[in-house]
């Protein structure tokens, strides 16, 4: 089975960092709302904030460093979990660190193969390949940009080669019907 481009570790790092930072901000906001519900004691809460500003900044820095360390560990694990291959009848994708996901897309069901290049992926010279099939065309996942199969960190040339090969195999499979 083939792997993604090595530079995709950076994409996984930024994704992991963004998600962990969003969770931290959500939890801090949730705790902040819970702490400020008691309006009668708001003055004491203000005093608490003033007297603990330094410790809150320290905890914020520790949390930020924790998010960076977690992302630094998680990115290579995510990279190692992504694999793909061509088989006789389908295109197989394996991924997942904790929960493994095995996707097998029959060539005769492939409707569209798209290449996406966001800002970060363009800066790294990478592309994302998205494979859409006949079975999931009208679902909510496709309405929000999902695809039955996707490969997020491919070299630009490799993505174009894969797209052309998938389209070729899909056309051959449909002609054989």
Question: What attributes characterize this protein structure?
Answer:
6 strands; 177 residues; single chain; PH-domain like; alpha+beta; elongated; 2 domains; three-stranded antiparallel sheet
Unreliable parts: 139-144
The CATH H-level homologous superfamily of the largest domain: FACT complex subunit Spt16p/Cdc68p
Tell the overall outline.
elongated
Strand order of the largest sheet: 1-2-3
- Could you say what the CATH topology of the largest domain is called? PH-domain like
Rg of Cα set: 22 Å
Largest beta sheet, briefly?
Answer: 3 strands, antiparallel
DSSP E strands, number: 6
The SSE order reads HHHEEEEHEHEH
Percentage beta strand:
15-25%
* Helical residues, percent: 40-55%
CATH class of the largest domain: Mainly Beta
Q: Give average pLDDT, whole number.
A: 85
- List the total number of helices: 6
Structural class: alpha+beta
> In the residues, how many domains can be counted?
2
* Span between termini: 28 Å
CATH architecture type of the largest domain:
Roll
What does this structure look like?
The protein has helices at residues 8-35, 42-51, 53-81, 119-124, 140-143, 156-175, and strands at residues 83-86, 90-95, 101-106, 110-116, 126-133, 149-155. The chain is of the alpha+beta class and 177 residues long. The protein has 2 domains: 8-80, no CATH class; 83-175, Roll (PH-domain like). Helix 1 runs antiparallel to helix 3 (53-81). The chain starts with 7 loop residues before the first helix and ends with a helix. Residues 139-144 have low confidence and may be disordered.
